[in-house]
């Protein structure tokens, strides 16, 4: 199986970096292989190397048996290194060597072990700033960032909160065995107006709790613990108001017709070339 490009996902905490990593895995030829995730910031530095690379029996006090590391467990699949910016310098060098040679050595071992794995990294930190401060290796950065995906905060992704909320509601209703079928109008209004400081993670928590606690067939703003009448900053810059309204209208029209350009143009009352120009202006892909 060919080794694909390495990817790095950049975005604030809670923006859904692991969700995207899992999607990259699920849409790849490695989908039937394992998806192994490790948070580099959540494991003490003295344990992280053995977690990643494994160890041989007797490698250190308490190493009573041979143990595979996360990299080996991901063989044939995808390894997701979350918060890669927190990797200690010594481990950065060892990771770089593995990415170049695709061979690991367990702690206490002398034998090279080939591993076929796709590596996806993620961080909420500014890696360029870490490089400038001497805290992250520049050569490792260029190795892991063959493809860089910037994930904006949820508040900047017009229309996404409602779409994601609908998908989450369906999933949680199925998982919890609840007959909740959608959102009330005040819930939709509250979702669209909320700033989502916790990003996708906050949205997941609110929707899951609401599905469990809802008394009716629809989730309300009260179930989400949101106000449909949340104060919004007064926008007096007419160009900005027009641009944001225009972007929302184009996105919603495309969503309503499943990306069909001709039907979306008809809904919006514009020509197809004009719609393509609007899509380019607002960063929307050519769907349909």
UniProtKB/TrEMBL annotation:
Pfam families hit by this protein: AAA_lid_14, HTH_8, Sigma54_activat
Protein name (database record): Two-component system, NtrC family, response regulator
Database matches in PROSITE patterns: SIGMA54_INTERACT_2, SIGMA54_INTERACT_3, SIGMA54_INTERACT_4
Lineage: Bacteria, Pseudomonadati, Pseudomonadota, Gammaproteobacteria, Chromatiales
UniProt GO molecular function: ATP binding; sequence-specific DNA binding
Coiled coil: none
Keyword Nucleotide-binding: yes
Domain of life: Bacteria
Keywords for this protein: ATP-binding, DNA-binding, Nucleotide-binding, Transcription, Transcription regulation
SMART domains membership: AAA
InterPro entries per the UniProt record, alphabetical: AAA+_ATPase (IPR003593), AAA_lid_NorR (IPR058031), Homeodomain-like_sf (IPR009057), HTH_Fis (IPR002197), P-loop_NTPase (IPR027417), Sigma_54_int (IPR002078), Sigma_54_int_dom_ATP-bd_2 (IPR025943), Sigma_54_int_dom_CS (IPR025944)
Record GO biological process: regulation of DNA-templated transcription
Domain called Sigma-54 factor interaction: residue spans: 6-212
């Amino acid at each position: 199986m060919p080794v694909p490009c390495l990817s790095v996902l950049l975005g604030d905490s809670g923006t859904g970096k692991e969700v995207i990593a899992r999607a990259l895995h699920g849409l790849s030829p490695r989908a039937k292989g394992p998806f192994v995730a490790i948070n580099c910031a959540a494991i003490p530095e003295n344990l992280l190397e053995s977690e990643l690379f494994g160890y041989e029996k007797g490698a250190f006090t308490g190493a009573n048996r041979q143990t595979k590391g996360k990299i080996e467990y991901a063989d044939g699949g995808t390894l997701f290194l979350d918060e890669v910016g927190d990797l200690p310098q010594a481990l950065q060098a060892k990771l770089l060597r593995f990415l170049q040679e695709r061979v690991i050595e367990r702690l206490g071992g002398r034998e090279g072990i080939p591993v076929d794995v796709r590596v996806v990294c993620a961080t909420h930190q500014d890696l360029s700033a870490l490089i400038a401060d001497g805290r992250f290796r520049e050569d490792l950065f260029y190795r892991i960032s063959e493809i860089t995906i910037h994930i904006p905060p949820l508040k900047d992704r017009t229309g996404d909160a409602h779409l994601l909320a609908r998908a989450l509601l369906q999933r949680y209703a199925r998982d919890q065995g609840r007959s909740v079928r959608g959102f009330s109008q005040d819930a939709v209004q509250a979702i669209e107006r909320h700033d989502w400081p916790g990003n996708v993670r906050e949205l997941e928590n609110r929707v899951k709790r609401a599905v469990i606690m809802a008394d009716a067939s629809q989730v309300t703003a009260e179930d989400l613990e949101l106000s449909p009448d949340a104060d919004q900053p007064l926008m007096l810059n007419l160009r900005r108001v027009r641009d944001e309204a225009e972007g929302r209208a184009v996105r919603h029209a495309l969503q309503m017709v499943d990306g069909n350009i001709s039907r979306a143009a008809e809904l919006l009352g514009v020509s197809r070339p004009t719609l393509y120009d609007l899509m380019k202006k607002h960063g929307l892909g050519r769907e349909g």
